[in-house]
Design goal:
- With 71 residues, this protein is mainly α.
- The chain is 72% helix and 0% strand.
- The chain is globular and about 35 Å long.
Length: 71
């Protein structure tokens, strides 16, 4: 199960931080497209259902650590 979580996190990291030019809609669309094939469908759905809260948490962490991200 841990590998499935890491896979979702790795793809999210790649789409948001490494590509940097993808907007939120494009990232969500790519996650949906990869769900059930590259990524575990249940975990991807969980991520997408909690998208707003995850962005909020990332914003708090990034502000605290003075990190600028595109998430």
């Amino acid at each position: 199960p841990h590998a499935k979580i890491v896979a979702v996190a790795d793809v999210l990291d790649s789409l948001t931080y490494r590509k940097g030019t993808w907007d939120t809609g494009q990232v969500r669309d790519e996650l949906k497209r990869s769900s059930g094939t590259l990524l575990d469908a249940e975990l991807t759905a969980l991520l997408l259902r909690n998208w707003a809260r995850i962005q909020e948490i990332c914003g708090q962490v990034n502000t605290h650590n003075h990190i600028n991200t595109h998430f």
